[in-house]
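# step 3/5: fold
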Amino acid sequence: MLVKVLHHGSCSKSNAVLEYLDENGVPFEIINIVEDPLSVLEIKSVLKKLNQSVFHIIRKNEKLYLDNFANKNLSEEEWIKVLSENPSLIQRPILIKGSVAMLGRPIENVKYFIEK
């Protein structure tokens, strides 16, 4: 089954997952979330597949987050809009296989996800 990878090219973890998939012959499609940001609806779909709230996929160590959002008390809907406008704040990589998804780290989790 084709695995979709929500990817950011400057992320070492994201690049490591792509390398792992390639080395293991796993067919995948790259979705570069910075060049082609996810819409609000697409983020909601990913969250449903992850079975997580938006708070699970926010990169809280990013300078953008620390400078602009760390002290804000935003709702889930507001955060989804922020992530659609600021894709660098989305944890990555996120792997999607059919109706399920997972955050692609640590790499051991990726191995398990691919095998199941």
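# step 4/5: annotate
The chain is about 40% helix and 15% strand.
# step 5/5: archive (pending)
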